[in-house]
Write a structure and sequence with these properties.
Layout: E1 11-12, E2 15-16, H1 17-22, E3 53-54, E4 56-57, H2 63-69
Antiparallel strand pairs: 1-2, 3-4
The protein binds iron/sulfur cluster.
């Protein structure tokens, strides 16, 4: 489902906006894939990880979206392609829940 009505033929740089919008999740601060190549939202300091794992880290809201829109957005999947507001996270969220050792 499109995030909004698109003007036919609209481009951002050399990329059609329709393609960018198609891979963008609701709740992302900007178009997915406009951030550093290969980076995902779970690697971004703005991704407000809720601290739960299902099949990977649970979808979590984007803090930049909240800042821009002044309301909480829909939770964004961990694997969403990063947007232009990407900021590297000091400590990356692991893909699986860490196992505690009882030593
Ligand atoms: S890359 Fe960061 S700022 Fe952009 S949508 Fe993902 S969590 Fe939000």
């Amino acid at each position: 489902m499109a995030l909004f009505d698109l003007t036919p033929g609209l481009h951002r740089g050399d990329q059609p906006v329709a393609q960018l919008a198609a891979r963008t999740h609701k709740g992302q601060a900007h178009f997915a894939g406009t951030g550093p190549a290969g980076k995902q939202c779970r690697q971004c300091a703005r991704w407000m990880f809720v601290g739960q794992w299902r099949h990977g880290p649970a979808p979590s809201p984007c803090g930049k979206y909240r800042e821009l829109m002044r309301q909480k957005g829909k939770p964004v999947p961990y694997g969403a392609a990063a947007c232009k507001f990407f900021e590297p996270r000091a400590q990356e969220i692991p893909l699986a829940k860490p196992v505690r050792s009882h030593a």
